[in-house]
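Newbie here. two chains, one complex. Structure please?
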Amino acid sequence: MPPTVEIQSLFKYYRKQTILRDINFSVPEKCIVAILGGNGSGKTTLLKIVAGLLPFERGHVRVFDASPGSALARQKTAFLPENPYFAETLSGRELLKLFSRMDGHDAANETFEAVGFKTEWLPLRLSQYSKGMLQRFNLLQFSLGKRDLLLLDEPMSGLDPLAREQMAAALMRWKNEGKTILFSSHLLADVETLCDDLVLLKEGKVLFYGSAAELLKKTETVSLFEAYRTVAAK
Amino acid sequence: MIAFYYILRFHSKRVLYLLLLAGFLFPLFTLFINAFTLKPEPLLILDASITLFGVLTFLFSFYLGTSVFPEEIETRSIYPFLTRISRIRYLAETLLACNFLMLIFLLLLYGELSIVLFEVSGFFSTALVQGFLVHLSQGFIWINLAILLSMFATPALNFCLCFVFIILGNTPPAILHGGLLRILRGVFPLLTLFDLKINLLENRWAPATLFAALIYNVVYGSILAILSGISFKRKNL
């Protein structure tokens, strides 16, 4: 069986700048893979390419053995952007109705509960939502489609400790439901406990790909932070 | 569905209502002014209204093309949609929504103008259908042009470029002679194919010229839409 995501010799340029250079890795089915790296390392760009939101110049990217952004890949992929962006003049209900129609089914009560979104917020305009409410709405629209591949850009960023714990639990639940997850993060503690494999990016290049245990062994360190520092310093 | 979303988004844009109000009040205003004269002049109302409708068509379609679509890209609220539907479908439905609103806008303006002229002259001018169709097809060009330009330009630059298109589009081909100007003339739309004012003021029904102008505008607008599709497909979002 081919991996859910396969990336070979991927290059991405933007205005004469190389954003991603020679990226090679694959995401096996039903695994959680984290992309780690500093600011501007290309994590978001990589996720957007897999989501089919960004074109790329060179290389080979396959999602469910199809091109990213193709009808088949779209049908099975969900993308959660780091910051929720929605038309603020619309109400949560209007927008949710639209997404539900596109996905072909309504949001179940369990989905509302799972993401902590209260139904009484639905009639409000999105401009009236707080940051936390918007993040939950973002998560709600993301969970609607029941896709097999979940791409999350910094899902823990800006969350309070309780919400972070809920997010970690959601990731584990999705994994147990048989979904494949690829997410980017700055937070090593979350990565260590959650993911099966990790991809370490620096200036658009993969420095390491493998499990956390392999990284520790390779760098002869005892903590992921030290290992990250060792690899990133090279 | 994106078309519906766009209509909901445009619903909150007050500028569109202001433009509609301006177009709506103008024929009533001319009617009011005419009431002070001994004999109301339907041609004067028609002439002034048609000129204003041309300007409003440009402003309305320009606003439709440059407000929500670039905003969606800029704020990245386009992401949840593009993970669900293809870019081409998104763009096609955007154009559909914009052109639908343009249709409603012109239907309302021309409907009201017909009633006002009926009040003054006592008969319905079928020539107004020509005005409606020409403005609708020109609106199609402006919407597609504004959307195409908004892939590369800021709204201010987009407005200036569209304005250049209007000026050169309305310049008779005879004025622009010489190599470069001739080439440029070929790029800009030929808006002088159908003389709206003369045909309307003389209540002349010219189906052949009208048909040619409509086909030209639709083809020109469609080429712009195709170019938008190509640009949007490769655009970094």
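Moderator note: Chain A touches chain B through 29 residues (CB under 8 Å). The radius of gyration of chain A is 18 Å. Thread marked as resolved.
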